[in-house]
Model the fold of this input.
Amino acid sequence: MNSRLRTLLDEGKPAFGIQLRFGSPAIAELAGLAGFDWILIDTEHAPQTPVTVQAQIQAACCTPATPIVRVARTDPDLIKLYLDMGALGIVVPFVNTPEEAKRGADACRYPPRGTRGWGPHRAAGYGLFEKEYTAEIDHMVMYAPIIESVEAVRNIDAIMDVEGVDGCIVGPVDLCISLGIPFRFDHPKYLDALRRVREAGQRTGKPVGHPLLGSLDDEENVLRQVAAGVRLLLVEGDEPVLKDGCRRAVEALAFLRN
Done:
């Protein structure tokens, strides 16, 4: 058992992620084979079910990519369920306080470190390697709260100090809305919030994820942000990839309709 995501982060390297909402195991497998390091299965904003989530986890595990599940809330029962399926990480939205962060972190680990109830099924090879899984998973699992409110930014140092918080991801749209500047990703308030999150990550040595600023073709610009701790790079999604591909195809042939 191994986690490409954990290995890259432990080595101080960036990890490329893609967020999936369509619930397709084939897309999860394709993304992993294409070279994404981690696959974020979004159950917060998409009508996914435990059955579709497990199918995507199984597909991702046929590739080097690490399957991570984005749950809808800090719910220890949901976290336990997806970890028992074989997810190697959990991402939780709207974590605003260190107390909320600790509840999520504890739900990802077995006692005495946490509060996770024991009972892995697919995660432990349906019982074939229960002892090995139980011994290794507490270190291997990745727990990252999503920072998407003024309150969360205000508490970012305390959140990142929580044992078991392995990093964090910024939710850019909700954070901008909370700041009173919807979709203003170039606004000084938003940029200052990102700076505060990065600094908390640097101080604790924990990786941060937020949309890269500026042109991705500017290698020096990207390297500066990675050096500042932006290493959880969520760089694509099944929705935008399909949307952009469909739009380009239709627009390319629009002259036939004139």
